[in-house]
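To: structure desk
From: M.T.
Subject: fold request, one chain
Message: Could you run this one when you get a chance? Sequence is below, nothing fancy, just the single chain.
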Amino acid sequence: MANYLRPGVFIEESLRPLTASLSAPGDAFAAFVGTHPKGPTLPTLITSWSQFLARYGSFSSIPTEYLAHAVYQFFNNGGRNAYIVRAANANAVVSSVTLMDVAGTPAALLTVTAKYVGVAGNSFFVTVEKSDSDATGAADTRFNLLIHEGSSAAASIVERYFDLSMDPADSRYALPIVNSPEVGSTRVTLTHAGAQTYALLRARPAVQAGTVLTGGSDGTGTPALDTAALTLESVTEKHNLVLSLPGVTGAATLNPVITWASGLGSVFVVVDGPAFATSTAATVTAYGAIPAALAKSSYAAVYGPWTLVNDPATSVNGSVRTLPPSGAVVGHYLATDARRGVQKPPAGVDNVLNSVLALDTKFLSADLDVLNQKGVNVIKNIPGIGFCIFGARTLSNNSSDRYISIRRVLMAVKRDLLEGTRFAVFEPNEETLWDRLEGVITDYLTTLQQIGMLKGNVPSQGFFVKVDSENNTTASIASGEVNIEVGLALLSPAEFVVIKIGQYSSGGSAATEIA
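Reply: Done. Structure tokens follow.
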């Protein structure tokens, strides 16, 4: 504070941070897990079909590998951001090359290993150049590392790292730069090779041009798709996810993923029902058995039947193929989030699947009655509109969270409250903090009510927030806790629209219900 030595009015400017505020829930991101011939096996974010082509190549030649088709349908149906996890075969081998140092008697210095597990890693080449910073110097310890994909030609260089060092004390130390998960290589990782003496670490790799990585093989072991899906936990700190394992219908794979998603609270699983069996009746029976076999969770929903589309993987006119619907369905999840918000389930006449020519099974009205009660969300042909998603139920048996929109609103609100109240950690635990927390959360929930995510027109009809001495006792304060109670009045979708038509004549009436 300034010292005031004369009478007068003095104005001081203070730019203190404003009270923390929360915005309405943002969009979730998609995630796809499946087998594919090429690409990294760790979660990789893409924002377009062209990015998928650049990182993972085109469609697989194996008919039962649906990853690329699901991603294509996702972007074709309004999707925007998706994490891709390629699951490799259990006994696949990664390719690598060991670089030697520049000593008179060369020794192994650096191992370059492909991030693309399997044969795809054999398409990488490494070039080592002497760094310009050492061109006239005596130390001669810096080098450039160039990564090629597809050939050793200069035109195939996809990554460049300049002025690197093998000295851990050097600010240009190669390993943390190339291996950085945020700004490092998306194709290779570096590890030390040979004896780790200080003198050796100060050396640099010998200059060489276009050395290929070798030894990669795809193997024959069954890929662990559930294990691959769990690697997405590393990105759930940033986003809620809508996850698909395209074409996977087996409970042995899906149940561990659904259980993991339920425990994590930030992943919603879109499940494909089975493809057409020997007959419509057999297919209906298979669909009826799927929900019973899967975990009873509000963090998952089943969709079917499979769709017939023009095959984007071939240039032959008129080629049609059958695809699981989850790729297109996940696209509608994200498109509906952006257009209406998570309170609107991705279902109804606004959710028409693009490029669908037909369905592999035509369910009858009696079938639809049974499947809806079992929690199967059916895709059906609405005359004059198209093939629409016509179901909004999760796999939960509880009436409180059986609708997709209820679960996803809760997921979004929990994430926002978690992020928006972090400012309170380590703040003095007393009434000023409680009032601030109550104000921040009340403003946020009021916004949700105004945009139609909560019931009612006034706060008392849609929510309550309690942060006071009643739920923050002396004992809880002494334990370092701030207790906040939040209650929400959530909206359920209008699943059944019933119109009563009455015929009136001479004071009498005959009524018919149309659902």
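Reply (cont.): The domain at 96-212 is CATH 2.60.40.4290 (Immunoglobulin-like). Let me know if you need anything else for the meeting.
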